[in-house]
Structures are given as structure tokens and as C-alpha cells.
Amino acid sequence: MEAYAEIIKGMAIQLDSRFTDVDIQKLKYELTALRFELFALAFTHKFVSNKIIIAQSIFIKHYLQEKGENDILNGMDSYNRTINTATLNWLDSLGKVNLPYNYRMMNSLCEENTKNIKEMEINADEMDDILKKINNRTWSENSWKYKFILSYLQLNLYKNLNINPETLNDEALAHIATTIKCFYDESKKSLAKVKING
């Protein structure tokens, strides 16, 4: 990911010199956390509410812990919360007619997630954390489709990199937005080949 981060930074510098001061290790860390979270988001969009999304979240958590990458895991939390915030703001934008239905659907899926995770007999210490993560991604597909999540993730990335987006030119902003979108699109493309029975 470091080489990839250097390419992203190099292209960004060509578009806006303000990226020169961005620490490459910090950029690598943020892009890695963001990429893991976007894979989990795409996974949720494919399987909606199912025991498999719980298993996937547990797998990512254990994988990163075993690799000693707790910082990346913590970094994912920031973007995970941002996804939830963006989705709630998308819901609020729907107006009085569509809002109740969408809230009911989201709450119904969250209840199903709770039921599924209890049936899986997950360790009590881990259950709340995993449930919070998957519920933050629930009913978010239209929020992604209408670019609410993309915009919010972009702002969060700038905040974490100590960059004021209002100082950046449009080309640099578009470059970072495209990078984030590519992370999601690549994940979705790879998941299109996945078929899980049961």
C-alpha cells in the first residue's frame, strides 16, 4: 500500500501543491483503513443482512489483530462511524413521505443483525463491537449511490490528514474522490464473483 500511497500523493501534488506536506506514512495508514472499511461496506451491500456479514466483520477484525494492525482496525472505526452519519443524513433528506419507511427498513435489518449475532454465540466482549460496525453499514446502499457516503468519507480523510478541503482546487478534490470510489468499485467487482451457499 505504501507504493500506492506514493502514487496517490504524487498525482495529488501535481494537481495541488498543498499535498506536498502530507506525511506518506499517515496517508498509507488512512488509505489502508479506508480500503478495508469500503470492502466491508461493499460486502454488506451484496449480502444485506445475513450471518455472512457478521462472519466477515469478525474475520477482518481477527485478521488485523493477528497481523498486529490494531491501528488500522481503529482507523476503520472512524470511517465506519462516518458511513452511519452519512446514511442518517441521507435518510433525513428524503422528506416526510419516504422517511418513515426507510427508518423502518433500517431498524428491521438492525434487529435481524442482532438476532443473527446472538444465534452465532459470539463472545459477549466482541458482540457489541461487531454489531455496532455492521449496523453502521446497514441500509446504506442508496446513501452510497447518491454520494452522501463518498462526500462524508472524503471530508473525514481530509480531517485525518490535517488538510482543509476548502483550500484545495477542484482537480485535487476530484482525484481523492475518484480514489475512494475506486476502492469501493474494486471491492464490489471482486465480490461479484463470490457465491456463498447456506
Question: How does this structure look, described?
Answer:
This protein is mostly helical. The chain has one domain (2-191). The protein is built from 9 helices and no strands. It has helices spanning 2-15, 24-47, 51-66, 70-92, 95-119, 124-137, 141-145, 148-160, 170-191. Helix 2 runs antiparallel to helix 3 and helix 5 packs antiparallel against helix 6. It starts with a helix and ends in a 7-residue tail after the last helix.
Average predicted local confidence, pLDDT: 92
When the domains are counted, the total is: 1
Counting H and I runs of at least 4 residues, what is the number of helices? 9
The first-to-last residue Cα distance is: 34 Å
Number of strands: 0
Shape: globular
- Order of secondary-structure elements: HHHHHHHHH
Give the % helix. over 70%
Oligomer: single chain
Secondary-structure-derived class: mainly alpha
Classify the beta-strand content into a percent band: under 5%
Tell me about the largest β-sheet.
Answer: none
Using only CA atoms, what is the Rg?
17 Å
- Low-confidence runs: none
